[in-house]
Write a structure and sequence with these properties.
Layout lengths: L2 H10 L5 E5 L5 E5 L8 E4 L3 E3 L1 H7 L12 E3 L5 E3 L11 E2 L5 E6 L2 E6 L10 E2 L13 H4 L28 H11 L5 E2 L29
Length: 217
């Protein structure tokens, strides 16, 4: 192999897209090392794939006021625990005006750029952590957001659903809506001490951080 050929091959090897370092938002964060075009699949969210029951069991003794979570809900059966065998994706912070989104492909979770990201810019996606009936009154304070976006909603939790005016529905439609509501949406999952707040995680193709509640740093 000639020296010219070796040099040509070196040029084809692109530098990594991102790196992990301390974040002004929270703990560690993931930052672009080079320009990342809109639509680029940046990395897969990896970790131990377990059931929701196992995920809750692993973190049932965590302080209910602890908002750290590496859990990402794939569907009604599976949760990815990024704290066990995970990769750099677990360090991507929440943002209310994100430059990334989580996407589900064949039950695998990927982080994709929703706009072009410049070198040095921190990656973020909207966790939209699921709310639960058992949440304590200060749940929004526990999962407070510090992303600094102009339209920051102040919490990593999904927006509260506006109450709907009740209308009579055929029984078949009502049953269908109830079944849909019971399905787990992809996104981050929150897990707290079961005696105080038994909660779960989020994740998937939708733009919810796919995360569930409990994210160790």
């Amino acid at each position: 192999m000639t020296s010219g050929h070796r040099e040509s091959m070196k040029k084809r090897v692109r530098e990594p897209m991102v790196e992990v370092r301390h974040s002004p938002v929270h703990g560690y964060g993931v930052f672009a090392v080079r320009r990342i075009r809109k639509g680029t699949t940046i990395m897969e969210y990896l970790g131990d794939r377990v059931s929701h029951e196992e995920a809750d069991s692993r973190y049932e003794h965590k302080d209910a006021n602890d908002n750290h979570t590496f859990l990402f809900t794939v569907d009604s059966k599976t949760v990815i625990d990024g704290g066990v065998g995970g990769n750099d994706a677990r360090f991507i912070n929440h943002g209310c005006d994100p430059n990334c989104a989580s996407a589900s492909h064949n039950k695998r979770i990927f982080v994709e750029a929703v706009r072009t990201i410049q070198p040095g810019e921190e990656l973020a996606y909207d966790y939209q952590i699921q709310r639960d009936p058992e949440d304590p009154p200060n749940v929004d304070e526990i999962f407070a957001c510090r992303c600094g976006a102009v339209k920051c909603r102040g919490t990593m939790l999904a927006p509260r659903k506006k109450p709907r005016t009740k209308k009579s529905k055929p029984k078949a439609a009502a049953a269908k809506n109830k079944a849909a509501a019971q399905q787990k949406s992809p996104g981050h999952k929150k897990t707290a001490a079961k005696k105080k707040t038994a909660a779960n995680k989020k994740s998937a193709r939708r733009r919810s951080k796919g995360r569930t509640r409990r994210r160790g740093r």
